[in-house]
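for the writeup, i need someone to sanity check this before i put it in the appendix. the sequnce is what the collaborator sent (i think, or maybe the updated version? ugh). structure was predicted straight from it, no edits. if anything looks off just tell me and ill rerun, i have time this weekend
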Amino acid sequence: MGTARSIFTRMSFIPKQYKGASGGGKNDDYMTPGKVKADGQIRFALLAEEPLCYFECWGEDKDGNGKPFRFADEPSPSDIEAEMGPNFERRKKDDGSFEPVKFAISVPIYNYDLGKVQTLSMTQKGLQKELDEISQLEDYSDLLCWDFILTKAATISPDMYGLRPVPRKKDTQKDIDAAWSAACDNGYDIGRLLTGGHPHKRD
């Protein structure tokens, strides 16, 4: 007599409507893969079950200072121009064409090296895909119970970044919970990214 097999179904980390997009000055409150040192790594714990998904492009003022502009839905050129207003122009590449709009995800994390809550943002499609695929494996059904190690190779290439899940670091859950509780008490709201605000500070 055969053994019945359970069927595991889990919502993926990146919502379905964004699947197509994902297939495609120092501030310690923010972390991006680009900030990881070459041949280095960071270890972190996710603090939310779902990321904030959006589209991002960069503008520059007359002095060349950059600023990210974020949109809940993929923007048209006129949407971008209206959002940037008269004080910013869309950033251009060396060939004079506009930098592309990128799909991005952001999520609050606990950074072990710093011992604090940060907002991790990713525009790298490979990392987005890795995290989403991990989220759909039965062994990692609760992503908030696992740690992740993000690595960066010394050589620039499409696959220079890597991401892997690892067991929760021993005796750290209380520190994680305390840091996240303090951030929430201070008004942490990742949605402020879409309005030009600071997730870690009340407006």
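The longest helix spans residues 173-185. The beta strands are 30-31, 40-46, 52-60, 66-71, 89-90, 102-111, 116-122, 146-152, 161-167.
thx in advance!!
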